[in-house]
């Protein structure tokens, strides 16, 4: 991965290969947990988060390899959150991307530990990234804050506490901004820090990240109502079944769509300040993808 | 905490206060998870791990404040591991230190997230410690490696996989070294790195850490057989009930005691190379405490 990559398709094998290197299968006493970690890590994910990191680096004129390990660490955090979210005590989901969820294959105990291990492995990976130490610490801060109660976990908490309740738009917005938005946003910010972007560039990228993060989650709400079960790889209607408040439920489907589309437009506008380049075009496509995806 | 502390009793309030500052209670949407995190973090723990960090710093001629936040981060990791270990899918314990376990108070979903959040908060704390960046990254590496599948989680996996099975001494040793030993050992190593100890000092402290870590876990096995339920704050006999292999089960109670005592003697011998000081004396006491404790 030493040259510029023009497309997501070119990039995907490099991400998958690096994830295999960073979370390898093992023989010996801890074989099963490594298998459980790899099972969820390599389940045909779209690698949206790694792509955001990598094409941000390219947009800023750096090689994709520059942020590859940061990208993989964020994917580990994303994967751990899915494993824990699917647990019986949380969403109790049995299917994810068309395959049995981690605890259905490895049991609840192993799934809890595999999630823990992926979160921990993300930090084991991050603190070894070859960047100047001061910059790397700032990268770790941004990602850790995006993953914790100040970010993703904060959103998950509000999510489980909101089940079966009517919630206000402020609460729903908080939940969506934090549960999915925070980590997506950190892909942009961490890559910008790693690539020593200017403050202006960093703000623009952060703005792009914020907008696609929220749009992504509104799209998720819509997919859970209108999606195709087979393409989605999991049952539709689970939000309604778990009596979860969603964007369409609060403002109606037409308004939800409108908001989601404006958010993506705003995200794309944030990129206008950058010179036209294949990387900029890919980030435009990724922004559109967040709401046009079928799964 | 700006002067040398002569005793564990003097140190304890400083650790507890700093933990309260680092994991504060919150109003607002994420109030409950902060309460759940604080519930387990402030449950009358002995703070063995923070004490080991702090008195290592003092042994090396530094102020205790030098490693206070590292000490607190390790305590967060320890606490997260207890919350997840107690879950119904793992040890299914309802009492810990005489109080209902986290999931019994806050429910399983919140307990899983509170554990996740404490692990994450440990890294949020670590990457903000005021140390030169290069040194801090080495500290984070050591702690992350001690917490992951290469350390504590590796031990937990072997633990759950060994339930109800006869296991060999090699497997039991691996489990004990990793499940409790790795994180205890990282208290010494991380403090030594933070205080810029020489390689010889670092090796001696690592040796002390290894020995007390293993001794601690053998003592745990013995307490689960011979301990007093009320002092212990949890039911005795849970290892037998969960059909877990223990050190006394494999080699007999008398041999288990002998091994445990030799390990502590070896640990104390590692301290001989350091000048006599109150800190050295406290580390001797902490080594003895690991096997003389009643809970």
From TrEMBL, chains A, B:
Keywords linked to the UniProt accession: Isoprene biosynthesis, Magnesium, Metal-binding, Transferase
An annotated Gene Ontology molecular function: metal ion binding
Top EC class, one word: transferase
Any single biological process term in GO: terpenoid biosynthetic process
InterPro entries found in the cross-reference section: Isoprenoid_synthase_dom_sf, Polyprenyl_synt, Polyprenyl_synt_CS, Prenyl_diphosphate_synthase
Keyword Transferase recorded: yes
Cofactor(s) needed: Mg(2+)
GO cellular component: cytoplasm
Enzyme Commission designation: 2.5.1.1, 2.5.1.10, 2.5.1.29
Alphabetized Pfam families for the sequence: polyprenyl_synt
Family named by the database record: Belongs to the FPP/GGPP synthase family.
The protein's name in its UniProt record: Geranylgeranyl diphosphate synthase type II
Organism ancestry: Bacteria, Pseudomonadati, Chrysiogenota, Chrysiogenia, Chrysiogenales
């Amino acid at each position: 991965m030493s040259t510029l990559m023009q497309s997501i398709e070119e990039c995907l094998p490099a991400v998958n290969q690096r994830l295999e290197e960073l979370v390898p299968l093992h023989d010996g006493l801890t074989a099963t947990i490594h298998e459980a970690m790899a099972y969820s890590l390599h389940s045909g994910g779209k690698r949206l988060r790694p792509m955001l990191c990598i094409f941000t680096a390219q947009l800023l004129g750096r090689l994709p390899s520059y942020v590859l390990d940061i990208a993989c660490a964020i994917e580990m955090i994303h994967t751990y959150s899915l494993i824990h979210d699917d647990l019986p005590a949380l969403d109790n989901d049995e299917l994810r991307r068309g395959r049995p969820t981690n605890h259905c294959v490895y049991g609840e105990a192993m799934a809890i530990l595999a999630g823990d291990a992926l979160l921990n492995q993300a930090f084991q990976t991050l603190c070894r990234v070859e960047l100047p130490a001061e910059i790397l610490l700032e990268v770790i801060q941004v990602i850790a804050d995006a993953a914790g109660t100040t970010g993703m976990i904060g959103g998950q908490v509000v999510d489980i506490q909101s089940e079966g309740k009517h919630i206000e738009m402020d609460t729903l917005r908080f939940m969506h901004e934090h549960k999915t938005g925070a980590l997506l946003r950190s892909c942009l910010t961490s890559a910008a820090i790693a690539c020593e972007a200017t403050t202006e560039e960093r703000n623009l990228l952060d703005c792009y990240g914020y907008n696609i993060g929220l749009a992504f989650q509104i799209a998720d709400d819509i997919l859970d109502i209108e999606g195709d079960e087979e393409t989605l790889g999991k049952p539709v209607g689970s939000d309604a079944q778990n009596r979860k408040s969603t964007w369409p439920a609060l403002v109606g489907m037409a308004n939800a769509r409108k908001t989601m589309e404006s958010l993506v437009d705003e995200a794309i506008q944030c990129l206008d300040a950058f010179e036209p380049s294949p990387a900029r075009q890919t980030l435009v496509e990724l922004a559109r993808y967040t709401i046009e995806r079928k799964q």
